[in-house]
Amino acid sequence: MRDITTIKYTPQEIAKKRRQIAKSFVLNSPNVKSADIKQISDRDLRLLFELYDQVFFDGWFRECFPGTLKLSFSRRMTKSAGKTLYPKNADPSRPEGLVVEVRISVDFILGYGALAEANKVGGIPTKSSLEALQIILEHELIHVIEFFYFQQSSCKKERFKTMAQNLFGHTESCHRLATNQQIARQKLGFAIGDTVSFPCEGKRLEGIVHGIRKRATVMVRDEKGSFTDQQGNRYAKYYVPLGLLQKV
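The structure corresponding to this sequence follows.
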């Protein structure tokens, strides 16, 4: 079995391979028709992974990875662009039973470009949501490789950073893409803890922003509400699209 932890490409090779994958992906994806992603599915993510396996790893995953690799987009991940899940009780003597799962936040991909300055992924300035998705997937594949060979992985440690640099030219282990909280603060002018108003059933309600994800969680004073603070005030909880909120 080829040891893919030792692969090292030049910056020119990495750039060429990444462009090759992007071109082939757009040509073959059932949903993505340009580098500006408008819609995407798990099937597209599987295709992108297969292209990476072919172009960067010469089919290593297809021919040598003994377990199961699941890939999916998550609509619940609002703070992390990607995540790799590895079973804590994995038995190294039975690699065929290994199940590793890669999840990528669809919010970060579809919301790409909301803040012009938030475009760095793995230390690389990106020009499109497709390029951002590629580098997020690259990062997660390093996690998969580390888990397979060493049964543990940390992007804060030197081994991960070295493989990420050698394989994909990454210079950082974090992704500097815009979160919903940053978008709300910089484009809409409010943050957690602010008082806001919003329309509801012909009225305009006021409340306090308690959380920001795809929608904001707003706590509105209500004598019949199900939530109580330390002072005994009662509140009702509302989930409000960010665009409907106005800071008071």
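The mean pLDDT is 91.
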